[in-house]
Specification:
Layout lengths: L8 E3 L2 E2 L5 E2 L9 E9 L6 E13 L9 E7 L1 E6 L2 E6 L3 E4 L5 E5 L5 E8 L10 H7 L3 H6 L3
Antiparallel strand pairs: 1-2, 3-4, 4-5, 5-11, 6-9, 6-11, 7-8, 7-10
This protein binds manganese (II) ion (MN).
The site of manganese (II) ion has 5 residues, from loops.
């Protein structure tokens, strides 16, 4: 993406010349109905700002990694898992995902959930839960009930 000073919002959470991409490569990890847009990606910043949108009842991948996420919900509502806690989230809420903490976002069934997510430009690959990890996560009833695979 070239660096452009101004990109207008085109409506419906899309921006001029910002392609709406697949969230991840199909089959690379479990997820359902998520798109990704990279809003800012200037190497001089050292970080990227992305917009993710989860369709109604969709969910992001249950994952963890060394890099952090700084998230602001800007559309709709849903829930997010961070470690052993599940939060109801809605527009303008902030979510900080610490290093190596399991996390997953889910949209409520009645509308999409959209959020901005800031990450380091250079970052490690997400880890997916092993069978053992899932067993450990399942010890917490709330988490077991929440997660989607
Ligand atoms: Mn992540």
């Amino acid at each position: 993406m070239s660096i452009t000073t101004h990109r207008g919002h085109q409506g419906d959470f899309t921006w001029e010349e910002v392609p709406v991409l697949a969230y991840k490569q199909a089959g690379a990890a479990p997820f359902r109905d998520v798109t990704r847009q990279v809003l800012f990606d200037d190497a001089a910043l050292g970080c990227q700002l992305r917009y993710f949108e989860v369709a109604p009842a969709g969910h992001t991948t249950l994952e963890r990694h060394a890099h952090l996420h700084a998230v602001m919900i800007i559309r709709g509502h849903g829930q997010c898992l961070v470690g052993e806690r599940v939060f109801a989230v809605g527009a303008h809420d902030l979510v900080h995902i610490p290093s190596l903490i399991w996390h997953q976002f889910r949209a409520d069934a009645d509308g999409p959930l959209g959020f901005l997510c800031m990450v380091n430009a250079e970052r490690d690959r997400p880890q997916l839960p092993s069978a053992e990890d899932l067993l450990a996560l399942g010890q917490c009833g709330l988490v077991a009930e929440f997660i989607r695979r």
